[in-house]
Amino acid sequence: MENREKVTSLRSSDGHIFPVEDTVIAEFRSIHSFLPAAGDAVFPISQITGDILAKVIDYCRKHIDHKLNRLRDEEITAWDRHFVNVDEKTLLDLLVASHFLGVKDLFSLIMVSVADMTKKKGVGSMDQLHNLFISNFRLD
Amino acid sequence: MAYSFPEEVLEHVFSFLSSDRDRNAVSLVCKSWYDIERWCRRRVFVGNCYAVSPEIVIRRFPELRAVEMKGKPHFADFNLVPEGWGACAYPWIAAMAEAYPFLEEIRLKRMVVTDESLELISKSYKNFKVLVLTSCEGFTTDGLASIAANCRHLRELDLRESEVEDLSGHWLSHFPDSCTSLVSLNMSCLGSEVSFSALERLVARSPNLRTLRLNRAVPLERLANLIRRAPQLVELACKQLKALSGFWDVVPSYLPAMYSVCSGITSLNLSYAAIPSSDLVKLISQCQNLQRLWVLDYIEDSGLEALAASCKDLQELRVFPSDPFGAEPNVSLTEQGLVSVSEGCPKLESVLYFCRQMSNAALIAIAKNRPNFIRFRLCIIDPQAPDYLTLEPLDAGFGAIVENCKELRRLSMTGLLTDRVFKYIGSHAKKLEMLSIAFAGDSDLGLHHVLSGCDSLRKLEIRDCPFGDKALLANAAKLETMRSLWMSSCSVSFGACKLLAQKMPRLNVEVIDERGPPDSRPEDCSVERVYVYRTVASRRRLDMPDFVWTLDEDSSLRYS
Question: So what's the ipTM on this one?
Answer without folding.
Answer: 0.70
